[in-house]
Description:
Blueprint lengths: L37 E5 L14 E8 L2 E13 L2 E5 L2 E2 L4 E10 L4 E8 L2 E9 L4 E7 L9 E9 L2 E10 L6 E2 L18 E12 L2 E13 L4 E9 L10 H17 L2 H6 L2 E2 L9 E8 L4 E8 L5
Amino acid sequence: MADDLQEPVAEPKSESQLPNEPLTPEKKGSKFPRWLIAIIVLIGICCVSVFIVVPMIFKVNVSGGGYSIESVTLSTGLENGQPVGITDVFKPSDTINCTVKTTGVKDGIIGMRWYFGDELIYDRAAKTQDNIVSMYIRSNKNAILPEGKYRVEIYMAGEALETVYFEVKVYHPIVSPSISIPEGHKSIETPWYPEVPFAFDEVWKVGNTEWKINEVKVLLMDETQEYFVEVVVNTDMKDISSLSEEKAKERTRDIALYAVKNGYIEKAMSLEIDGKQYDLNKFIFVTLINPSSHQVYRVKFTMDELK
């Protein structure tokens, strides 16, 4: 559901426990904000949705101390502890699993170093169970895995024994009439789902307040087949993360009304996206983003609320 964009993400630690996702601090001067992702160790059975099925099993025969790595597999999910949706190209909305199968001593320690480009973003070691261990990374709803090249180094006793590579890519729909992104425009929201921005770097005067609009776009949630207009607001508000839903709606309602009254919904509906036009007159999101603090708050309005 589109409502899910407003909820904080939680990662399963086990089948019976759902704690909040752990965050790691951003490293100064880092190209990749380390707070963007969490990594979870999965030993045994875990169920995750499947998106893509492409054969991509990395067979290796390396060993250390009588303990051998048999294979390393990247996938979008696990069923009964086995990889499903095997691939090396992922969407930002995918869960990215790395599963290592071993032979030899049971309950040996396997480590994984995850890199974005040349930057280490996470390093974790864990015991195998029945000669298998899986770890995964994924976006959360306030911070998205960026497009680019990644790799995972598999190690034992600190020594890297195998490296597998993968890529995160965003699907870019074909739009008619075509839309040109102005030179110098920089999106402040990392794409998660396919999107079609059609208004850029505008200033909306709403009452006595001027709001800096980074983008207005159509967002295509590919899993749920829901489509809607989103207004992305570049703000220096310091208290975004502490807003209640009621307070957030109070602050952003006039922005949503401005978009509706000034024809942005109609403009979005006039676009042909991958050969189709969509009914976008159901609800609208206003997303407040403070680029300095990385705080994000998404507010959903139905059209009935804006009447």
